[in-house]
Amino acid sequence: MDLDLGRDELIFIGAALGMLRWLDERLPPGAVVLVEEPDVIHRRGVAALAADLPVVSRVVPAEYQTGVDVDALLAREPRLAAARLVVPGIEYAVPAAARLADRLGLPGAGPEAAEIFADKHRMRQVAAGAGLPNPAYELVGTPERAAAFAERFGGRCVLKPTRRSGSLGVQLITEPAAIASAWATTATPEEPPEATDRGLPTEVLVEQLVVGPEHSVELLVTDGEVCFANVTDKRVLPGPRPVETGHTVPSALPPAARAELVQVASRLAAAAGFRTGVLHSEWIVADGVPTLVECAARLPGDMITALVSVAYDCGFIPAYLRLLRGERPALPARPAGAAAVEFLLAPPGTVTAVTGVRAALRAPGVLSAQVDVAVGDTLGEVVSSARRSGLVLAWGDDPAEATRAARHAAGLVEISVG
């Protein structure tokens, strides 16, 4: 990947170690300045981790997750003004990255659009104003108000924190009486390890429960114009915690249905005034109508970038970085094949054995298999994406073949607990 970057010319906000390692393999030494919260640097040992990555020239401590004073940051760190692109590494860095890019005159999401997609309630308001299919929703301050909302929709609803990712705090409620005991999980959700110790302010959004197959749309946008679009099929856990269990690229939907999803995702981008970058929106198709679930103005997680790269035989992340450099990369309009990921979901308990990884790696179509837990680890219930135990990535000639390959290989891996 030749981005022609010199020292300190890429500002990366938020220590997403997987992405930093990816950059370390592809960019020249010293190209990246890493900006991170001071308490996160200390708690996670970020300085030591960055020291092992030649691509990182230095680590700049800055409070950004609860609002950033860009002018004060640049006054304290004037060398940041030499950057040629600004990249958010984590969900909670999206607004700060957009503000800094805007201040430096560089391509980015735009401060207003970044704030919209960082707040699920604001996103709902923008989508509703644009006439996009939205479930009924309400910002609520008490479990009683949430229960009253649920009663209006057959006793069922979804509780969501307005500012979290990775399914943290998201709950599907089927009985209003369950809301009182479920309230704290959403109102004060688990803090992810990348979050500042100051806490991430959030509110509770209650939504009408929509049922149907789930999909995501990945858009690359330059100056408000969509230049690449993909539709992904999603698999989620049944029950009250809808954690994603797998994805397939491209979607197996008919062309007209895929085109409709791209169209509504593009309308959402336009309604928010999104400028340049990547948008990852999620939709449930209920009674044939794509209904918005949520949207993030950052690279998708869950290996979706790898799936797109394999299926379209392209470099999705390099294309995204080129957009942020002000270029317009050429990407294939149609996939050359398909790719799928299936996540490993171990039951709660203490891990006593892990077997079958070699068999999974030898299975037809498998590109990679990884287990993220070890003997002796204590595992809890899978209530967010961070609680999954590993994954299998596979390819195929079409979505069905790729999905079968990933699911078959994942079934060969056994994580025993006691």
Folded structure, characterized:
By secondary structure, this protein is of the alpha+beta class. Strands 13-12-9-10-11-14-18-16 form an 8-stranded antiparallel β-sheet, with helices on both faces. Strands 3-2-1-4 form a 4-stranded parallel β-sheet. A 4-stranded antiparallel β-sheet has the order 5-8-6-7, with helices on both faces. It has 14 helices and 19 strands. It has 4 domains: 10-106, Rossmann fold (3-Layer(aba) Sandwich), CATH 3.40.50; 110-135 and 211-336, 2-Layer Sandwich (D-amino Acid Aminotransferase, Chain A, domain 1); 136-207, Dna Ligase, domain 1 (2-Layer Sandwich), CATH 3.30.1490.20; 338-418, Alpha-Beta Complex (Aldehyde Oxidoreductase, domain 3). The model has no long low-confidence stretch (mean pLDDT 96).
Distance linking N and C termini: 46 Å
Total beta strands: 19
The unreliable regions are none
- Give the count of helical stretches: 14
Average pLDDT, all residues: 96
CATH class of the largest domain: Alpha Beta
Q: What's the number of domains?
A: 4
The SS-based structural class is: alpha+beta
The CATH architecture classification of the largest domain is 2-Layer Sandwich
How much helix, percentage-wise, in residues?
Answer: 25-40%
Provide the CATH superfamily of the largest domain.
Answer: ATP-grasp fold, B domain
Care to give the gist of this entry?
The protein is an alpha+beta fold and 418 residues long. The chain is 31% helix and 27% strand.
Salient structural properties:
ATP binding, 14 helices, Rossmann fold, eight-stranded antiparallel β-sheet, four-stranded parallel β-sheet, D-amino Acid Aminotransferase, Chain A, domain 1, 4 domains, 19 strands, 418 residues, ATP-binding, ligase activity, ATP-dep_AA_Ligase, alpha+beta, Dna Ligase, domain 1
